[in-house]
Amino acid sequence: MQVQEKMPVLREPEKRRRSGKKLLLILFLLFVIILGVLFFNSSISKVATVTVEGQHYLNPDEIRKAAAIVAGDSYFGTSAGKIEARVRTLKPVENVKVIKTFPGSITIHVQEFKTVAYTLSKNGELTAILANGTGIAAGSDMVVDKPILSGWKPDDPVLAELCKTLAEIPEDSIADFSEIKPEPSPSYKDRIKIYTRTRFEVITAVSLLPDKIPTLNAVIEIQPPGLVTMLLADKYAPFTPEVSENQGISQNETTQ
Predict the structure, then answer these.
(1) What are the phi and psi torsion angles at 53 (to 5°)?
(2) What confidence category does residue 26 fall into, taking pLDDT thresholds of 50, 70 and 90?
(3) In the prediction, which pLDDT does 5 show?
(4) What is the phi-psi region of residue 123: left when phi exceeds 0, alpha when psi lies from -120 to 50, beta otherwise?
(5) Which pLDDT value is given to residue 250?
(6) Which of 89, 120, 86 shows the shortest CA–CA distance to 106?
(7) How far, in Å, CA of 33 to CA of 87, rounded?
(8) pTM for the whole structure
(9) What's the rounded Cα separation, in Å, for the pair 73 and 235?
(10) What CA–CA distance (Å, rounded) separates 147 from 126?
(11) How far, in Å, CA of 61 to CA of 65, rounded?
């Protein structure tokens, strides 16, 4: 009986199938690349508007310049974090939040440092002093509801500490302050003199001011205008000596 040998079967069709898959993959990638090129060159991938909000003293154009982003720039070219870092380099800026809304909208929300005082130049120009000690021009129509700082040197470290301290004290607690001047002494390098709208004069130190505020307000509330010293010990002396009721009667009888 003759045995027939079987020939092995060659599987060529599988190779053709793999080549077809590679071709489809190449065509798909090519299609994605073309779409990407078209997208990034279209107007939909560009910045359409840059909105600035929340600022009080800074000019919106100044903020846009610091952000280094304008209409027409690539929307995906710069992250929100990088824009925020650029805007924070402006001294009046305490915090900034950038919101990117597709397509093409960028909003920059700025929070400036709190205004704690003002200064007046020789020409009568008003400058706002912020909590970090930065001075920035204020409009002539500003309502001066903070104390005026006079006699200070711009680089005085006590001035920077004073601004920081004023920012930490509740506004209603220092609403009566009208002017603050430096009056350093050998014992207190940060000694200051405060004039109030209720005609009191207060001698204290920047480092002591937060703790002395409650006592000062209590004195102002119940005493006539006078000199209040609040350093190691607290002292009060009225500008006009009080005349007792008996003294007043005696003087009237003498006159009669």
Answers:
(1) -145, 160
(2) confident
(3) 57
(4) alpha
(5) 40
(6) 86
(7) 35
(8) 0.74
(9) 64
(10) 12
(11) 6
